[in-house]
């Protein structure tokens, strides 16, 4: 009798715990415990969890597990090439929402939105491969940021602008070019970066 009561109580407690954790999810919605943990993670959550949360917010087609794996890979590569991991994650969010299958109207593909010729120029054999694209994008942004360090403008803003409009455009205008698309692109990356680090 005691064993039956213990099992019954355990089931009730599990049910109450799940109900308490899921109070904000509408009943017809499918529930992923991992996704709830990302969304409910506070400002002191590990950076990988905060990035994964932003991936989930901007791209619901990516599973929580894939979001966390891609976020972790991006953070590790950014640290290896010595650029701010949250800046790098914000750039990938802006480019593709971390979607390895993304295709732009201009023919850019993959998580880092390289065109095939540009990818080959930077030693990326397969721009669809998220690992190769993340590595290539991180190295390119790190090179841009290194070139722009020590100037009067934010090197990360210039690196993002160079990724969008090309380094020749940055050199011509001696800063972020006056193109609306590039200025919005840089601003969006700043806002995404702020959301990642500010929560």
Write the layout of secondary structure elements.
Blueprint: H1 2-21, H2 33-40, H3 47-58, H4 64-81, H5 85-96, H6 116-121, H7 130-148, H8 155-165, H9 167-173, H10 180-198
Notable features of this structure?
199 residues, mainly alpha, 10 helices, 0% strand
CATH class, anyone? Mainly Alpha
Quote the distance from N terminus to C terminus.
49 Å
Mean pLDDT: 84
Q: Pairing-aware structural class of the strands and helices? A: mainly alpha
Based on CA inertia axes, which overall geometry fits?
Answer: globular
Number of domains: 1
CATH architecture: Orthogonal Bundle
Question: What share of residues are in beta strands?
Answer: under 5%
Helices and strands, in order, run as HHHHHHHHHH
